[in-house]
Every structure is written in C-alpha cells, then in structure tokens.
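User: For a reading group we're discussing how well predicted structures match intuition. Take Tryptophan--tRNA ligase. Before you show the prediction, I'll give you the sequence so everyone sees exactly what went in.
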Amino acid sequence: PFKPLVFSGVQPTGSLTLGNYLGAIRKFVALQEDNDCLFCVVDMHSITARLVHDDLKEQTRSIAAAFIASGIDPKEHIVFNQSRVPGHAELAWIFNCVARIGWMNRMTQFKDKAGKDRENASLGLLAYPSLMAADILVYRATHVPVGDDQKQHLELARDIAIKFNNDFSSRIEEAGLAVPLTMGEEKVNAYFPVVEPLIDGPAPRVMSLRDGTKKMSKSDPSDNSRINMTDDADTIAKKIRKAKTDPDALPGDVEGLKGRPEADNLVGIFAALSDRTKADVLSEFGGRQFSEFKPALADLSVTVLSPIGDEMRRLMADPGALDAILLDGAERANALAEKTMADVREIVGF
Ligand code: ADP
Ligand code: NA
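Assistant: Thanks. Here is the predicted 3D structure of Tryptophan--tRNA ligase, as structure tokens, for the group to look at:
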C-alpha cells in the first residue's frame, strides 16, 4: 500500500474567501497534525482562464501567507508554488496523453469557465484537470482535502491514475515499481495511488451570501457579498447582516434546512467555524430568528478570521521572508517530484 500523504492546492487568483478557508485551508491545518503534507500555490493553473496577471508574485505570497497565518507549519510540511517544480508540467504532459478528450469535455467547471464561446477558451483551461492530477500524483499523494466544487476533478484524477496503472501495468512490474493495490475484486499492479478526496464537514461548499444557489468564489469579482479572509471586523459583520435569508425562524433540526439554501449555508458556516455539526448548532439556535443568529455568526466569524487576517498582513509586510519559505518548500518538493519523474520516465520508456 501507499504511504499516506496529503496534497492540496489553491490558485493565486484574488482575495481568499471564507469558502476557501472552510472548504480547504482550515482542513489543511487539522490534517497536518497526523500527516505529511504538501500545500501548493498553483500559479500555473491561474493562467488558464486569464493569461496576463500583473501581480502574480504578490498573489502567490498572499496565499502562502494565508496558509501560514491559519496555522500551517512550513518547516514541518511543504509550502511552495507549482511553477518552481518542473515535474508538475512534465507529468501533466504525460497525463494529457493518458486522459481522453471526452473526459475533459464533461467537466462542469470547464463549461462554466469557458462560457458560451467554448472554441475560444484556452487549451490549458480544458486540460486543467490533467495538470491537477499531476500536481497530486507527482508526489504520489493519497489524500486531497478540497471543497465540493473540486469533486469532479478528483474523480478524473482517479481515472487518470487507474488508466496509467492499467496501460503501463507490465512495464510497471518489469521496472520493479509495482505497488499491489486491491480495486474492488481485482488485484492490480499500481504505480500511482487512486487518490481519496477529503470533502466532508458541515460546509463543503460555502455559497454566496447574496445568492444561496451560487458558490462563494474568489475568482468572481462581481460578487461583493463574499467574505474575504482579510476583511476587518466591521466589514465581516456588515456582510453577514446583509446576507440574504428567508423570513422564517431557524428550524430545530437539519431536516428543516431542506429547501432553505440561505439558512442551510449560514448554519453550515457557523458549524464549520466552531467545529460543530449543523445539528448541534440548530439545537442551540432552532426557533430563533436570523436577527439573533446573524450577530452570533458575525462574532464567531470575526473571532476566527480577524487574528488570521492580522497575521497575514504581518507576513505580507516581509515579502523576502515569504519568498524564502516558498523557495525552501520548492527545493524539498522538487526532490520528491524528481524521484517520481525518474520512475515515470523509465515506465514510459523515455
Ligand atoms: P476559487 O474557486 O475560490 O477561485 P480555488 O479554485 O483556488 O478557489 O480553490 C481553492 C480551494 O478552495 C479548493 O479546494 C476549492 O474546492 C476550495 N473552495 C473554493 N471555493 C469554495 C467554496 N465556496 N466553498 C468551499 N470550498 C471552496
Ligand atoms: Na475552484
């Protein structure tokens, strides 16, 4: 079996939101206690939707700062940016030849981001999930904490690993690189693990505060209801006060949140921020009005996010120190990636 290893990435595309924090970064912090982890700023992904950015380095530092300010230890684990480790792009090319065009065409994120003029989207946007699979598998990582929006991409990463393992199965064995893996009934010779997504928790997909049917996204600049990790206390409180709700009181149980996306979203946020379940939160707030619940949620949000925002600003004031952390991380990541790539070159026959 494969040694457990955690990998996850965040794009340097704008101010980090409460969605990124609860769907991803807060989970990273919890996972680092019992696992070896790599946390990556995926700058190569950020040019798939928009090619020219004036502040990519600054954005990259701010994601690293958010990781560290949230509690990730960059000495114990690896914090780095993708473009500094060439193995990601090299393995992605091989995966482009493993994956099928039909697989990519089915990705809902591609359809959303490409919009109507699909022929004019970048080839990189279509191949995005292949690079994402390479990000993970170049370390042969086994567990990937992400938000629910990434579920389909992770299924594709699993499909790529399975197809690579199948297509090259005798070469993997000949090279003495086979790891026995049981897939259902079948025993297979694997080189790549079939990754497990870690998507659980009470807020796997934080929704926009003005439209409970749309996800809160840092890449959507038109949504000014979103809570940023660096918002000050007044801004956070104001955004929560203005959040869309329905006129009813909070239900007493989770069943009662059905068909009430805004209520469900706010209760999920409260639960995730306090490491409780939604049922537990509703046992406290069931029957109360949003006029009572919102101030409690605002206080909790400020208590959790304010110290992180302050620490992010402190870290961002010393760009040289952040660059040194990222460089050290890239060197350690590169050493691991190079081992995998030496195997992969042999398996493919280069
Ligand atoms: P974004 O979609 O905000 O631009 P990324 O694509 O960089 O963010 O994703 C970084 C991580 O944050 C991923 O694990 C993604 O699933 C998670 N994430 C992004 N938005 C949300 C959200 N609204 N709720 C939960 N997790 C989210
Ligand atoms: Na995303």
